[in-house]
C-alpha cells in the first residue's frame, strides 16, 4: 500500500501578515529617532524648528562635525571611551566567568549565602554608591584618571549571575567530574572546557557591558573633571550652551559617537542573539 506524504501549501495567512506588519511598524518607530538624529546632524540648527520639519538629510554634516571638533577634543574623547569600554569588557568577561564557574560547579562554604548577597546588590540603585565610590577614588588619587572608570567596573553582579546560570545549563556535571578524574585543575577545566562552551554568553555579556560603558555619563562626569581627559558622553554634554544650543552640531557629534556601537553590534549580533535565546529551543 503506497503511503502518501502530505504537502503543505503556503497560502495567505492574515495572522502572519499582521505579525509582519506589526514588526515592521515597531522597527520603523524604533529606528526613526536615529534617522532623525542623522537628519538634524546634517542640517543647520534652524531646521529643528521649521514647520513642517526637515525629513531629508542636508549638506551640513562636515561643517557641523568641524564645529564639534572646535569645541571639544572629539578623537581624544573617542579614544578614552574606547579604551575604557574595551578594557572593562575584557575584565568583566574574564572575572565574571570565573566567578560564575565557581558558583555553578564548585562547592565551598557559604556558597548559596554569597550568591544570595550578590543578587541583593543587583537591587541597590547605582546612585546610592556614588558618594562612597567617589570618596574611595579620591583617597586612591585616581581622580581624572581612566583607572577610576575601569577598575570599579571590572566585576558586576549581573555578569556573575548571567555566567553562573549559563554555565549551569551548558556544561553537564558529568563532564566536570570526568575532567577532575583525569587530573585537570579547576583553572584548566575553566580554560579548556568552560570558555569554548560559553562563547555565546561571552558575546551577549560583552556587548551589554561595552554599550553600558560607552554610554555611561553619571560616573565619568563625577570623576573626570579635567577637560583634557573626557569620555564621549561628557564631551558631547559640554556642547550644550546655556544661552543657545546648536542642535545640528550636538546631534552630529552624537551620531558619530553612536557609529562605533552600531559596528560592534553588527559584528557580534549573531552570537548576541544566540546567547539570549540559548535554552529556549532544544
TrEMBL record:
<keyword id="KW-0813">Transport</keyword>
<keyword id="KW-0472">Membrane</keyword>
<keyword id="KW-1003">Cell membrane</keyword>
<feature type="transmembrane region" description="Helical">
    <location>
        <begin position="113"/>
        <end position="137"/>
    </location>
</feature>
<dbReference type="InterPro" id="IPR000515">
    <property type="entry name" value="MetI-like"/>
</dbReference>
<feature type="transmembrane region" description="Helical">
    <location>
        <begin position="149"/>
        <end position="168"/>
    </location>
</feature>
<feature type="transmembrane region" description="Helical">
    <location>
        <begin position="189"/>
        <end position="214"/>
    </location>
</feature>
<dbReference type="GO" id="GO:0055085">
    <property type="term" value="P:transmembrane transport"/>
</dbReference>
<dbReference type="Pfam" id="PF00528">
    <property type="entry name" value="BPD_transp_1"/>
</dbReference>
<dbReference type="InterPro" id="IPR035906">
    <property type="entry name" value="MetI-like_sf"/>
</dbReference>
<feature type="transmembrane region" description="Helical">
    <location>
        <begin position="247"/>
        <end position="268"/>
    </location>
</feature>
<comment type="similarity">
    <text>Belongs to the binding-protein-dependent transport system permease family.</text>
</comment>
<keyword id="KW-0812">Transmembrane</keyword>
<feature type="transmembrane region" description="Helical">
    <location>
        <begin position="17"/>
        <end position="38"/>
    </location>
</feature>
<feature type="transmembrane region" description="Helical">
    <location>
        <begin position="74"/>
        <end position="101"/>
    </location>
</feature>
<keyword id="KW-1133">Transmembrane helix</keyword>
<dbReference type="GO" id="GO:0005886">
    <property type="term" value="C:plasma membrane"/>
</dbReference>
<feature type="domain" description="ABC transmembrane type-1">
    <location>
        <begin position="78"/>
        <end position="268"/>
    </location>
</feature>
<protein>
    <submittedName>
        <fullName>Cellobiose transport system permease protein</fullName>
    </submittedName>
</protein>
Amino acid at each position: 500500500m503506497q503511503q502518501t506524504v502530505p504537502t503543505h501549501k503556503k497560502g495567505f495567512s492574515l495572522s502572519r501578515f499582521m505579525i509582519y506588519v506589526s514588526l515592521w511598524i515597531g522597527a520603523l518607530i524604533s529606528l526613526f529617532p536615529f534617522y532623525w538624529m542623522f537628519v538634524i546632524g546634517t542640517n543647520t540648527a534652524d531646521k529643528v524648528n521649521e514647520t513642517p520639519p526637515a525629513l531629508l538629510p542636508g549638506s551640513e554634516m562636515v561643517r557641523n562635525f568641524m564645529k564639534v571638533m572646535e569645541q571639544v577634543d572629539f578623537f581624544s574623547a573617542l579614544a578614552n571611551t574606547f579604551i575604557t569600554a574595551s578594557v572593562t569588557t575584557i575584565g568583566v568577561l574574564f572575572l565574571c566567568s570565573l566567578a560564575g564557574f565557581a558558583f555553578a560547579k564548585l562547592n565551598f562554604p557559604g556558597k548559596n549565602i554569597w550568591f544570595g548577597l550578590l543578587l541583593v546588590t543587583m537591587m541597590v540603585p547605582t546612585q546610592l554608591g556614588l558618594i562612597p565610590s567617589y570618596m574611595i577614588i579620591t583617597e586612591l588619587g585616581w581622580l581624572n584618571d581612566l583607572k577610576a572608570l575601569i577598575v570599579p567596573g571590572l566585576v558586576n553582579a549581573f555578569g556573575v549571575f548571567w555566567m553562573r546560570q549559563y554555565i549551569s545549563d551548558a556544561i553537564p556535571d558529568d563532564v566536570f567530574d570526568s575532567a577532575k578524574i583525569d587530573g585537570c585543575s579547576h583553572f584548566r577545566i575553566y580554560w579548556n572546557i568552560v570558555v569554548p562552551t560559553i562563547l555565546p554568553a561571552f558575546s551577549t555579556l560583552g556587548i551589554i557591558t561595552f554599550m553600558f560603558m560607552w554610554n555611561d555619563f553619571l560616573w565619568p562626569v563625577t570623576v573626570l573633571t579635567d577637560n583634557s581627559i573626557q569620555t564621549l558622553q561628557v564631551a558631547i554634554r559640554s556642547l550644550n550652551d546655556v544661552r543657545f544650543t546648536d542642535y545640528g552640531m550636538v546631534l552630529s557629534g552624537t551620531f558619530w559617537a553612536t557609529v562605533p556601537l552600531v559596528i560592534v553590534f553588527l559584528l557580534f549580533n549573531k552570537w548576541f542573539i544566540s546567547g539570549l535565546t540559548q535554552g529556549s529551543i532544544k
